[in-house]
Amino acid sequence: MKNYDAIIIGTGAAGGIIAGVFAEAGKNVLLLERGPALSFSDVGRDHLRNQRLSVYGHNAGPELDGNPRVFVDPLGKVQTVRPHQPNYHNNAACVGGGTRVYGAQAWRFLPLDFRMASTYGVPEGSSLSDWPIAYDDLEPFYERAEWELGVAGDGSALEDKLPRQRGYPLPAVNSSPQTVALRRGAAQLGWSTNPVPLLINTKPYGGREACIGCKYCVGFACPTDAKNGSHNTMIPRALATGLCTLQTGAIVKSIETDTHGTVTGVSYIVQAPHGTELKKATAKIVVVSAGAIESARLLLNSRSSHHPNGLGNENDQVGRNLQGHLYPRAYGLMREKVFTGIGPGVTIATTQFNHGNPDLIGGGMLADDFIKPPIDFWYDSLPPDLPRWGLANKQFMRDNYTRVLHVRGPVQDIPSPKARVTIHHDVLDCWAIPVARLSGTTHPETVRAAEFMQRRGEEWLRASGCEKVWSYSPGLVLSGGQHQAGTCRMGNDPKTSVTDKWGRVHSHENLFVIDGSLHVTNGGFNPVLTIMALAFRSADYLVQNRL
Amino acid sequence: MKLTDEQQKTLRAAVDRIIPSDNYPSAWQAGVGDYLAKQFEKDLSPFFDTYCAGLASLEAESLKQFDQSFSSLSDEQKDAILNQVEVGDFFTTWTVSPQNFFKLLTNTTAEGFYSEPEQGGNREGVSWSMIGFDSI
Question: Is A383 on the interface with B (CB under 8 A)?
Fold first, then answer.
């Protein structure tokens, strides 16, 4: 059995970066990924089976059969759900994780996003808390993520809110007619706007081509490999050192401990010529980067006599505070065509309402949207007073697909300790491992903020010249999904957090969680750049101090 | 899994009221029938019985109210019945929820018509030409 410097579980936004940093520092790494490496054609262009609209399946895993979860709705009804179904809270399972098929919005969190409790106080029933680190601690690593992976944006746009040492390596995406309309509308309202930062090559970068403006960023793979994820940046760099072993199709069954309760390595299942094989590997440190739901599940499933409630779970904190984002969304009908058909589609945002809203905790960002495949538009974007069928429906699609302006955005989730991942011991996956059970909802304060943002969306569209405006807001639900975070949050107090400020599990010297699970709060922004920055920061620390 | 000829006739008539023809083809003309036939063997196989029962009830509703097959009704008569089914207002005994059946019928028709041509219900990308979406 080979002994590694580090075993990293998961190849997503965090795991791939950590592997790259470790391997380039000369460390031996075993990088485990439950899914396969997927080519552009493996991911395909199926409009009904993708990570954005998954009516009948997914294009980036996990397999629909053998990977159930249990979902408990707000009324207590318990359902077993499959990966493409509502309430599964899926993220892709393949090399690169969610970054293989994401839209790639590359936002930094604002300084206040790290100080939510001291800024707003803690509402009853919430576990709202400050981060143990500040924006300034993360700033150099945001910059590093922006430059090492490649982000396109306007570095001067948010200078007053987001102090930065260095601009972006790539120019922002081009404007389109919808950008012009929305910028004019915002100006009329006195709102500031900025281009949406994206992990997309607006020019060739990192040895890869520029974006060709196709319409398939969210939920699909990029035809020119111009969308920057861990799969085409840090993982290839890790592999190029010869020091990183990437094992795909590897399901980690448990994190192993010795008779003293010390973490020694992992046991994992791989496909073998005749069925499956259980393998073990040992390492100086184990890093769990499987995403907020699966990372919590793995810690909770790693039970032993020393750790009867799972690893790091002495204070019943693992799996709590599951959060993502509620997405209010608004639509408006323009007299003129605003659709050019040139992707990505998302161009302009306002951060006017992320903070400082009267009588609200936090707020959120609003932006226009990625180009929607027509069937996605049909499901998502039609006015509530339009018949769902008949000539009126068909002719609305005919006349207005290119005239509808969309704005939407993530609302800062006010965490609830009752929104959580536990283990459902009676339901097993196809490797006989008990599955994740998801229950609870976000805090009602999040819903209030979402409704406020929904109104701001409508206001923006009216000011931008829309004749008719309609909107939706999600209500009191569990948030998680592709923005899942919070289940092993970092903190100084082991009673209310799972790890220290580097991601080290409080009760273990050599066990780390580094992914969205660490987020104390999830910002009013797409969280991936923060996950990446935390990964660079912790990986550097580990190389310097622990490996 | 295949529908009977009678069910197939009812399906065609219903689908063509969900997305009727105008200057652009109807759902059936664009291939939604082929799309559904393919899907009954795959993703829609768990719903095949709902389809059969719903189509039979739609036909029974038509016979009861207009003394004619659904497929031979006028467009106005078809729409009148579909409007009732959509809101769960009916005169015969349904063995499946009319609202659920109607939602399934509507959603799967749109899925075929508006998704990519390879799925079978958007022949030569006709719905995409109609709305102004082209795919590169």
Answer: no
How many Cβ pairs within 8 Å bridge chains A and B?
78
Q: Select from A379, A391, A401 the Cβ nearest to the Cβ of B22.
A: A391
Contacts of B106 in chain A (CB under 8 A): 388-389
The overall average pLDDT reported for chain A is 97
Q: Which of A379, A389, A396, A403 best probes binding to B when mutated, by most B CB atoms within 10 angstroms?
A: A389
Is the predicted pLDDT of residue B45 greater than 70, yes or no? yes
Nearest CA-CA distance, residue A540 and chain B, Å: 41
End-to-end alpha carbon distance in chain A: 19
Angstrom distances, CA of residue A328 to CA of A98, A338, A339, A453, A467: 22, 21, 21, 7, 20
Q: Under DSSP, is residue B76 helix (H, G, I), strand (E, B) or coil?
A: helix
- The alpha carbon of A221 is separated from its chain's Cα centroid by a whole number of angstroms, namely 16
CATH assignment at residue A174: 3.50.50.60
**Closest residue of A to B134, CA-based?**
A341
Best CA proximity match to A284, nearest among A14, A546, A25 = A546
Q: pLDDT for B62-121, tens place per residue? A: 999 999 999 999 999 999 999 999 999 989 999 999 999 999 999 999 999 999 999 999
Give B86's contacts in chain A (Cβ within 8 Å): 388-389
pLDDT in tens, A427-465: 999 999 999 999 999 999 999 999 999 999 999 999 999
**A488 within a domain of the structure (yes/no):** yes
Using CA atoms, how far residue B101 sits from A23, A194, A377, B58, B88, in Å, is 56, 46, 22, 10, 10
Residue A267 placed within a domain: yes
Residue A23 lies in a domain: yes
Q: Tell me how close the Cα of A391 comes to any Cα of chain B, in angstroms.
A: 6
Average pLDDT over residues A463-479: 97
User: Structural domain tally of chain A?
Assistant: 1
Residue type for position A154: D
Which of A48, A378, A398 is nearest residue B24 as measured by Cβ atoms?
A398
B103 to chain A: nearest residue by CA? A388
Cβ contacts of B42 on chain A, cutoff 8 Å: 56
Q: Give the whole-angstrom CA distance, residue A64 versus residue A87.
A: 14
Q: Is the pLDDT of residue A272 over 90?
A: no
Q: pLDDT at position B135, please?
A: 63
Tens digits of residue pLDDT in A229-248: 999 999 999 999 999 999 99
ipTM score assigned to the predicted complex: 0.98
